[in-house]
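Repro:
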Amino acid sequence: MFRLCPSQASLGVVWWAFAFLIASAPSALAQDAESDAQTPAELLEDGMDAAADHATESARRLLGQLIADYPGSPEASRARRALAALNSGADTPGDRAAIRADEAERTAQYRRAFLIDAGDRVFFAESSATIGGRARSVIENQARWLKIRPDLSVTVIGRADDGGDKENARALSLERAKAVRDKLIASGVGPDRVKLKPTGDQDHLAVCESPICRAQNRNAEVFIDDLQGASELQSVQQPLPRASPRASMGADAQSRAEGQVPQ
């Protein structure tokens, strides 16, 4: 019977291992390439940012890549409009309006994602600007969300519906906005990215008389600024319903309205 000597057996094992590596290399490279691929939203954002910075060639390349890689996506439709404006070389009112519309849509998408992923506001006990445990957790989530999107800036809108005169309400709303701003900065958000807007008792989310309902107006909202330009701030969320899916925030407001500050 033919027997392999140890050296022959070792060479055979090495040969088969080498052959396996050669065969698996293409699939590994394909996986790496797939993991490095940008999503349609990322390509659109990069392309629009390049266009805003007047890096026209980079914008054309990114938008063209989006159209080629994801031709049927909603982002590709927007990329085609932006690319047409770039290729026309004209700075017409229609072009500027199209760019503003695209920026407004992107801003709205950021605000919706922020609301869903992190929550946009925290609530306070009556006549207090102290951040409780639940509010602290929400703000830390907000900071994490904002840190991975460094191009965004926010305005912290403070509100107060605690009784008393308008001067005291404005001062309290400012204290609440500052408390949230300071916590965002302490959690890693750059101070130049956070502005304040105290509204006192003039920006009610709920118009009512019961203590539980009015507790919704004792809050500070982190509002993502427009990507370009400035406009009057308007909340993208309607007043919280009594049975809100965001139960932690609804329960927070209710317990504080009843004088039970969560820990």
